[in-house]
């Protein structure tokens, strides 16, 4: 298993404190399982975070219901962003673990409006291995799928 690190006790991390209302956030939407609020960094205007209400660190810690709630909320937010900010594109980004780019260790997904040459980048070093290796990877993963 990856060495995902949770740096805060449950209930005391920055996003738990936003969920509880202990610290302010510009909330857009909430339901029983998910909350959406403006990212303080605003990579582009309209940049929203969709977080679980429950303290869960990574994707691997979510229930199926939380997974569904987060994605449904992300789509609703994307629809609102499209109507209000009319971006040329939209990127979902969800980071897990320090090495995965996560800096706040309470599950969240970025919904980022995108524009031409907006300076957002992710290095993507393609390896393009032979097909036999792809089949080997697929077989190994099929054997490890949860039932
Ligand atoms: P990540 O690097 O994917 O873990 O993203 C963490 C995000 O949380 C960053 O984009 C921060 O700008 C954002 N963030 C941190 N603190 C707050 C806060 N108090 N309110 C809103 N967004 C925050
Ligand atoms: Zn938390």
What does this structure look like?
This protein has 147 residues and is α+β, with helices and mostly antiparallel strands. The protein has a single domain, classed as HIT-like (HIT family, subunit A), CATH 3.30.428.10. It contains 3 helices and 5 strands, in the order αβββαββα. It has helices spanning 14-20, 64-85, 131-144, and strands spanning 27-30, 34-38, 48-52, 89-93, 108-114. Strands 1-2-3-5-4 form a 5-stranded antiparallel beta sheet, covered by helices on one side. Strand 1 (27-30) and strand 2 (34-38) form a beta hairpin. The chain is globular, with a radius of gyration of 17 Å. The mean pLDDT is 95. Adenosine monophosphate is lined by residues 14, 25, 39-41, 49, 95, 101-104.
Estimate what percentage of residues fall within beta strands: 15-25%
**Cα-to-Cα separation, first versus last residue:** 18 Å
Major sheet: size, sense and barrel closure? 5 strands, antiparallel
Structural class determined from secondary elements: alpha+beta
Mean pLDDT: 95
CATH-defined topology? HIT family, subunit A
Shape descriptor: globular
Regions with little confidence, pLDDT below 50 for 5+ residues: none
Question: Strand sequence of the main sheet, in spatial order?
Answer: 1-2-3-5-4
State the helical fraction: 25-40%
The radius of gyration over CA amounts to 17 Å
**Count of discrete domains:** 1
Kindly state the number of beta strands. Answer: 5
């Amino acid at each position: 298993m990856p060495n995902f690190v949770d740096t805060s006790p449950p209930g005391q991390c920055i996003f738990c404190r936003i969920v509880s209302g202990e610290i302010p956030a510009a909330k857009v939407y909430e339901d029983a399982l998910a909350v959406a609020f403006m990212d303080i960094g605003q990579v582009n205007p309209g940049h929203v975070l969709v977080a679980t209400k429950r303290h869960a660190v990574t994707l691997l810690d979510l229930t199926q219901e939380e997974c569904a709630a987060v994605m449904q909320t992300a789509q609703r937010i994307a629809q609102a962003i499209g109507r209000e900010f009319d971006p040329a594109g939209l990127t979902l980004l969800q980071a897990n673990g320090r090495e995965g780019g996560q800096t706040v260790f309470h599950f969240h997904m970025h919904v980022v409006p995108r524009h031409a040459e907006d300076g957002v980048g992710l290095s993507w070093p393609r390896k393009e291995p032979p097909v036999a290796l792809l089949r080997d990877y697929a077989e190994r993963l099929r054997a490890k799928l949860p039932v």
